[in-house]
Amino acid sequence: MNIRKKIYDIIGPGYLEDDGVWSQLYHMSMSAVIAVSIVPLMFREHSTLFWYCDIIPALIFVIDYVLRWITADYELKKGWMSFVIYPFTFMAIIDMLSILPTIHLLSPTFKAARITRLLRILRVVKFIRYYEPLEIIMAVIKRQGRILWTVFSLAAFYIFITALIMFNAEEDINPSTGEYLFHTFFDAIYWSACTLTTVGYGDIYPVSQIGRFISMISAFVGVAIVALPSGIITAGYLDELKAKREQKMAKKISKQQKQNQIEEPYEEMD
Prior knowledge:
This protein is an all-alpha fold. It is built from 14 helices and 2 strands.
């Protein structure tokens, strides 16, 4: 077997297809490495231990990136163009961005400490590749992308319209602050988004009767709009699980049929 194919069988989606112990071990090990790499983000202090928690995982990420690049044709199935396309795929970009923060540790001239710290958070996204439920969620979002985008557009439009109405309707002075409820239109957008999602921080709230009435209507409609993507993702998740079970069952049946075909000639000889 081609050595690149062997590498792909190990680093590929083995946890989904049950391709072997080495593949499962690789995915579990990479998940552990990602977990270790984000530990320093939970602390403000800097120490030698945290330095190693960043350097060693980053080197492993580089090796993983190279291995995935040289086996890109098995993943993308586009021939030699796969090697050109791969660096621009979503997960490849995430991999590269998760490696870049290490430059800050290796080169003192790279001073954007806040940016590098934020880029390290992208390493959490790498769990998508090694954790099956997240992979299924991403597959559902990709498959239902058009519907979800429609719902998102509806929510964005509703937030804008509600903010515009409230910005012009709520003109009373807030008695607790002695100022207008909304200083800017962005404050109205912020209030509308919080109301739509039923978060309700309580830092901005209407004081006039018409403002409270608009707020009530917005809250009721917000519950319905927020429930739409939840139902879509839940239904898609269940469908994806069913499809994967059928895929695994078909693979087991195929293996069993191949095994029976191999055993039949020996039985005839006996």
